[in-house]
Design brief:
Number of helices: 4
Largest sheet: 3 strands, antiparallel
Distance between the termini: 42 Å
Helix content: 40-55%
Strand order of the largest sheet: 2-3-4
Oligomer: single chain
Number of strands: 5
Strand content: 5-15%
Structural class: alpha+beta
Radius of gyration: 17 Å
Shape: flat
Order of helices and strands: HHEEEEHEH
């Protein structure tokens, strides 16, 4: 991980609890660095190594507007869900996102992930089958 961070031009100072704390552009860049570090270490993302993270949405949920103010943008609940789904499609090694809405929704992200990832994989399988024929 240290090498990936340094190769991207960031310092490798330590943050709370001993983790690296580079000043990254956004969350996707952090996930990309983790993805790259997994590969650089000789593992297969999503097969041998998985990622779980705490989105901490309760910290950027705006109780007045019922939207999410995150990384300089405002997301509606549906748009934030789309953002998470984009991350899941790009980084299949993500297996869990804790505190994804900042409130109790009655549905876990893991259930949403299972539904969406299964649907996406089915779509890919059908698409590749059609391309091959």
């Amino acid at each position: 991980m240290k090498k990936v961070i340094e190769d991207a031009g960031y310092t490798t100072g330590l943050g709370d609890e001993g983790g690296f704390a580079p000043d990254l552009k956004n969350s996707e860049e952090a996930l990309q660095m983790l993805h790259d570090a997994i590969i650089k270490a000789g593992y297969t993302p999503g097969k041998e190594i998985a990622i779980a993270f705490d989105a901490a949405a309760s910290y950027f949920y705006n109780r007045t507007t019922h939207n999410y103010d995150f990384e300089g943008k405002t997301y509606t609940p549906a748009a934030l869900g789309d953002y998470y789904l984009q991350l899941l499609a790009k980084f299949p090694e993500i297996v869990s996102i804790e505190d994804h809405t900042g409130k109790r929704t009655g549905i876990t992200l893991q259930a949403l992930q299972l539904l969406m990832v299964t649907s996406f994989r089915l779509w890919l399988t059908i698409r590749f089958a059609l391309i091959r024929n």
